[in-house]
Amino acid sequence: MPDQDLRVAQRSQTQLVARRFRRHRLAMISLVVLLALVLLAFVGGWLWKYSVADLTPDESVPPSWDHPFGTDAAGHDTFAQVLRGTQISIGIAVLGALVATVVGTVWGATAGYYGGRLDTAMMRIADLVLTLPFLAVAAVLGHNLGGSWWLIAAVIAGLYWAYVARVARGVVLSLREKEFVEAAKAIGAGDARIIFRHLVPNALGSIIVNATVLVAIAILLETALSYLGFGVRPPDTSLGLLVSDAQTAVDTRPWLFFFPGVFIIVIALTINFIGDGLRDALDPQQTRMRR
Amino acid sequence: MTSLGTPVLEVADLRVEFRTDEGRVPAVRGVSFQLHRGEVLGIVGESGSGKSVTSLAMMGLLAGSARVSGSVRLRGTELLGASDKALSRVRGQSIAMIFQDPMTSLNPVYPIGYQVAEAIRAHHDISRDAARTQALQLLDAVSIPNPAQRVDNYPHELSGGMRQRVVIAIAMANGPEVIIADEPTTALDVTVQAQILDALRSAKERTGATMLLITHDLGVIAGQADRVLVMYAGRVVEAGTVEEIFYTPRMPYTLGLLGSQPRLDMRRQRLHPISGAPPSALNLPSGCPFAPRCPLAAPVCEAEEPPLTGAGGHLSACHFSDQLVGLEPGDLFRPVSQDSEL
Amino acid sequence: MLAYAVRRMLVSVPILVIATFVVFVMVSLSGDPLSELKTRNPPPPPHTLQLEAHRLHLDEPLLARYWHWITGVFHGDFGPSVQSTQVIGPELAHRFLVTFRLIGVAMLLALALAVLVGVVSAVKQYSATDYTFTFFGFLFLAMPSFWFAILLKEAGISFNDTVGNQVLFTIGDSSVYVEGGTWASITDVLGHMILPTISLALLSFAAWSRFQRASMLEVLNTDYVRLARAKGLRRGTVMTRHALRTALIPLVTVTALDLGAIISGAIVTENVYQWRGAGSFLLESIRHDDAYAVAGWLLIAATFIIVFNLAADLLYAVLDPRIRYA
C-alpha cells in the first residue's frame, strides 16, 4: 500500500513537469519544429532523389522545384547537402553533448560528494580545461585527429565535460547536506549508491536542462570549427562547411549561404527554447513570481 | 477602547487582484479598518490570507501586475492612485515599514549606518555628516551596542536580531505617524523575539506612532495589540478588541486559531487545531471560504458568503456567530493525538 | 588580498605548463613540420632538410623539445618557428595587440548594451520591449558568429556602395599605407574596427543581456529593494543605487568566465575580416604544424584569461563586502 502511494506521487511529479512543459507554448512549438527538422534530415535526406556527391548538370541554379535550395557551381544539389550537413552537425552535437554530460556528471558528482582534497584536485583539472579558449584547442585537436564526425564529437565532449562537471558539483554540494542523504547514510547505503541513486536523480533536472543547452552550444562550436577548416572535411559536409564554402557567394548565389545558416539558427534556437521550457517546467519557482 | 476623532489612517474596501498565467487571483477582497492615534492594531491570519499584500498595497509597493482598488487615506489624503513622487514623500516620512526577514531586508553592499542615514536624507536636506550623527543616535536608541563601531559594519556582520534593530531604526528615522510591522519577529529566534518586540514598543513610544502589527502569532498580538483583525482568504472575518477576540470570539476560524496555539498559562492543555488548509486564492469556494474546514458549516455557508457585521466594535463574518457564545476550541475542533499533549 | 593574488598566480603556473604541454604534444604529433619543404620542386638537398630539422630541434626527443621551449620562454625566447622568416615572440606580441584592441572594445560595447537591455527588460518585465529584447537575445544566442560576421561584412560593402565611398573597411585590421598624419591613421584603424567589433560584441551581448535581466529581476524582488522604496527613496534612485549596484556584481564573474569564448569568437571574426591578428597567427601555425608557435599562442591566451579571471575575482571582493580573500 505505501509502495503504491509512492508510485502515484512519482508519476504525478513527472506528469506535472510534462504538463508545465506543454503549457510553455514556445518550447512546444520549438520541439515540433526541431523534430520535423530532424525527421527531414534523417529520413528526407535518405529519400531525396539527389545525394551529397551527385553532380547534376544544373550549375549554380537558384531554388526551383527540382532543386529546392538551388545548386552550387559544381552542380551539387544544395538541398541534399544541407540535409546531409544537418545530419552530421546534429549527430556531432548530440553525441558530443551526451558524452560530455555523462563524463561531467560522474566527475562533478564524485568531486562534490567526497569533497576535500579529491574535490580540489578534480575541480582543478576541470578548471584547467575551462581556462582554455575552446575553439583554439578544438582546432589543434581537429587538425591532429582528422575530420571524422565522431572524433569531432569526442573533441567537443573533451572540452565541455568540465563545464558540466562544475554544474553537477554545484548541485551535488547543495544536495549533500539534505535530509534524504543523511537518511540514506543512516541506513547504511554505500557511497556509490548514494551518488547514483539519490544525488544524481535529484540533480537530473539541472543536468537535463544543461545537456539541452549544451547541444546548441556544441552545434555552434562544430560549425565554427568546420568553417575554419578544422572540423568536418570534404567530401563529407556539415552546415559550417557549407557556409564556409558559400561565404564569397552571399551576393551572387545567396541560397548557398542562407539555407545552411538558417538551418543552424533554427536548430540552435529551438534547442535553446526547449531548454528554457524544461527549466521552467522543472523549476517553477523561477517563473511563478509574476508580481 | 476605540477612540473617537479623525483616524490617522483609514482603509476602506481595499481590494487587490494579481494577474497571473492561471488567471486573476484575488488576494485581498475588501478590507476596511481605521487606525487611531497611538493605538496598535494587530492583523492575524495564516500565510496567504492577504495580510502582507494589504500592507504593501497601502504603501503602493505592489508590482505592476497587481490591481488595487478601494481607498487608503492618511489624515484624509487619498494615497491610492497618488503619484510616485507624492507617495515617496509619505513613505518613510509618514508611514514606515518593517519587513519580516531581517536577513534580506538590508542591502548587503552598504554599511548599516549608510542605510539608516539614507532614510533620513530621503526626506531631509541635511549633510552626510549630520545624517550620520542622527543615524548613530538611532542605532543607540534601538539598543545596538557600540553604535560608533557598528555604524560602518555591513549587514552580514550582524546577527538577525541586530539587523532587525537596524530596520527598526530606519523605520523610526523620520518620526512616522504609522509604523507597519509585517511579521517583525517571525524569522527570529524565540529569545530574540521578545527583545525585538521591546525595541518595537519603545520605537512606537519615542515616535508616538500608530502601529499596524501583522503576524500569525496570537501570542504577539495578545501582548502588543489594542485591537485585532482576523483575516482569512483575503477578507477580514472578525474584528474587535483583544479581549473580545480572545475571550468571546464570534467566528469559528478565530476559535480554531486560539485552539491551535499552545498556552503556557494552562497545565495539561490539548491543542485543537483546524483541519485542512486554506483555500487557494485561484478558486475560492462560492460561499464562506472557511466552510470546507468549519465544523459548523451548513448549506447556507456554501451558498452565500456572510458579511462582516456586529454590534459596537466587535464584528464577525459568520452565519452562526451567535451559536459561538461561550464555546471553547475543544467544543468545535477535534484534539490532536495523545502524544502531542503538553 | 595581495597574498591571495600571488598565491592564485602561482597555482596557475602548473595549469599553464600542463596546457601548453598537451597542445605542444598534440601539434608535434599531428604532422611533419618539414612536409612543405620536402614537397618542394625541385626537392631541396638532404643537407638543407637536416639543417632545418636541427634548427627546429627535431633531432631531439619530444620531451627535450618541450623542455627547451618552456625554459626558453622564461628568457623571452619562444623557440624557432617553422616559418623561418618569423620570430615567434615579437610576432605574437604584435598579433595579440591587434586582437586585444578588438576584444577590448567589443567587450566594452557588449557590456554597455547588455546592462542597458537587461535592466530595461527586467524593469519592464513582460512588456513588448521585454519580449522584443528577449527575441533578439535568443536569436543572437543561436546565430553562428561567422555567419553573422559574413552577413555584416556584406552589409558593410553595400553600405559603402550606397555612400559611394569606403567608410567601413571589410578586409584587414588597417590599411597598408595611409596618407596623412596620425589622425588619418587613427580613423583608418577605426574604420577597420567597426564591423568586426559589432560582430564580436553581439555574441556576448546576447548572453550577457539575458544574464543581466535575470540578475536584475532577482534583485528587484528582494526585500531590501522593497525596504529602500519604503524609506521614501524615489524609484530611479532605488533602481540605480540599490538594484543595479547589486545586480551588476554577478556580471563581473560571467564576463571573466566568457573570456575564452570571446577569444574563440575573435579567431572566427578575424578570419572573416581577414585580420592579421592572433587568431590568424594561430590558424596559420596549426596548419604549419608549428608546435612552438601554437604553444606560445596558448601560453599568452591562457595567461591573459587567468589574469583576467583573477582581476575579476578581486573586483568582486571590492564590490561585494560579503566576500573577503585572505
Largest sheet of chain B: 7 strands, mixed
The number of E-state strands of chain C comes to: 0
Structural class given helices, strands, pairing of chain C?
mainly alpha
Output the number of helix runs of chain B: 12
Total domain units of chain B: 2
Which structural class matches the secondary elements of chain B? alpha/beta
Measured by DSSP, the beta-strand proportion of chain B falls in: 15-25%
Large-scale geometry of chain C: globular
- Give the name of the CATH superfamily of the largest domain in chain B: P-loop containing nucleotide triphosphate hydrolases
Mean pLDDT of chain B: 85
Q: In the CATH hierarchy, what is the class of the largest domain in chain B?
A: Alpha Beta
Radius of gyration of chain C using CA atoms only: 24 Å
The counted number of beta strands of chain B is 11
Percent strand of chain C equals under 5%
Describe this entry's structure for a reader.
The complex is a heterotrimer of chains A (291), B (342) and C (326). Chain A has 291 residues and is mainly alpha-helical. Chain A has helices spanning 2-23, 25-47, 78-114, 116-131, 134-145, 149-176, 179-186, 191-228, 239-246, 254-282, 285-288. The two termini of chain A are 41 Å apart. By secondary structure, chain B is of the alpha/beta class. Chain B folds into 2 domains: 9-230, P-loop containing nucleotide triphosphate hydrolases (Rossmann fold), CATH 3.40.50.300; 248-332, no CATH class. In chain B, the strands form 2 sheets. A 7-stranded mixed β-sheet of chain B has the order 6-7-8-3-9-10-11, sandwiched between helices. In chain B, strand 4 (66-74) and strand 5 (77-78) form a beta hairpin. Chain C has helices at residues 2-30, 35-38, 46-55, 62-73, 88-123, 128-142, 145-163, 182-220, 223-230, 235-247, 249-257, 259-273, 278-287, 291-319. In chain C, helix 8 crosses helix 10. The mean pLDDT of chain C is 86. Chains in contact: A-B, A-C, B-C. At the A-B interface, loops of A face strand 1 of B.
